[in-house]
Structure formats: structure tokens, C-alpha cells
Amino acid sequence: MVALERTHTQDRPPVTHRARIDTVTPRAGIGTVTAGTHRHGDRRRTARVVPTPRSSIPAEGYRSDVPIARFSLVALDCPDPQSLAEFYQRLVGGRVEPQTADGSWITLVQPGGVHLAFQRDVDHVAPDWPEGDPQQMHLDFDVDDLDEGERAVMALGARKATTQPRPDSWRVFLDPAGHPFCLVLA
């Protein structure tokens, strides 16, 4: 078994991230991870990893041109996961699925795509973009018409950022929790 653990507090209760590979089964020259777990707070998920041909794994166990994982989710800290999930559902569609009984983790499931998750953080401080606190992260959404997209996200409750570096190509907005996101001309 291989185990990795990282704990961070950032002036909040500790959050531990654990990844564990329980079983590696060689089968016809293929190493397959048959079980793995990820724990975030009170939430536990089991993941399956795509088989990697044994010949592509060098003696050191890592090769930079072979992916070791698939991107599946972006999680945003916020004070109200349900309302932020509903905001993004109106923006990109999908299905809102509470993952905890107390509503502290909500996932916006995207069919065939990367999911968005919203995690309650009662001490969440909205980023002050482009100055002040770092933006933490931002999301880009492609649109066919920037003006139509702007009207639509403003109607959902987004705010337009005061700084617009390239408004003919992309525009910056803030979601209801203050996270920056961009509408990008497709």
C-alpha cells in the first residue's frame, strides 16, 4: 500500500487530504489500481485509475508524458454552497447533488465533464481581484456572444469586475461569493 497525506489549517480547523492505493493488480502486462480513496473533511470518495501499460512505467515509477490522473472536479470554498451551486447551475446546467447531510459540500454534476463542487467555509473571504488578496483561482466559460453572456450572468447575480484587461476577447465577473470568473469569446 502507498499512502500520501497532507494537512493544512490556514487559521481554520485542520483539513486532511489522504490518498491511498490499496491494491495494484498486475494483469497481462498491465498495472491496474483497483481501489483508492480520497478524504476531504468528512467526505470520502473511491476512485478508479485507468490502467497504464507496465512498459510505460520506468524503473523510477514515473514518466512525465503519461498522465497519472484524470481531472474531475474543481471545488470552491464559499459561505453558502447551495446558493452558489444554483448560481453555477443556471450558468452551465448540470445537476445539483448534496454530498453531506448538513449541506456543507454540494456537487454540480456535469454529464461527461468536469464537475464543480462547493464547500462551506464560514470564514470565507472573497478575493479582491485584481488587487489585494489573491484571486485564489478563476473559471473560464466560452460564449458565442460576450454581450449576451454578460447580460445573462448579470441577471443571475454576477457582478462585473471593475478591471477588464481585454473586454473584446474576454470579460471578468464575480460570482455571488466573490470568486472571479471569465466569459471568453469562443
Verbal overview:
This protein is mainly beta and 186 residues long. The protein folds into 3 domains: 55 residues; 54 residues, Signal recognition particle alu RNA binding heterodimer, srp9/1, CATH 3.30.720.120; 61 residues, 2,3-Dihydroxybiphenyl 1,2-Dioxygenase, domain 1, CATH 3.10.180. The protein is 12% helix and 41% strand. The protein has 2 helices and 13 strands. Strands 1, 2, 3, 4 and 5 form a 5-stranded antiparallel beta sheet that branches. The longest helix is centred in the middle third of the chain and has 12 residues. The termini are far apart. The N terminus is likely disordered.
The shape is: globular
- Secondary structure class reads mainly beta
Known CATH architecture of the largest domain: Roll
Helix content: 10-25%
What is the level 1 CATH name of the largest domain?
Alpha Beta
How confident is the prediction overall: mean pLDDT?
Answer: 74
Beta content: 35-45%
Which regions have little confidence, pLDDT < 50, spanning 5+ residues? Answer: 1-59
Count of DSSP strands: 13
Largest sheet: 5 strands, antiparallel
- CATH-level-4 superfamily name of the largest domain: 2,3-Dihydroxybiphenyl 1,2-Dioxygenase, domain 1
Oligomer: single chain
When the domains are counted, the total is: 3
Distance between the termini: 45 Å
Q: If you compute it from the alpha carbons, what radius of gyration comes out, rounded to the nearest whole angstrom?
A: 20 Å
Question: What is the ordering of alpha helices and beta strands?
Answer: EEEEEEHEEEEHEEE
CATH topology descriptor of the largest domain = 2,3-Dihydroxybiphenyl 1,2-Dioxygenase, domain 1
Number of helices: 2
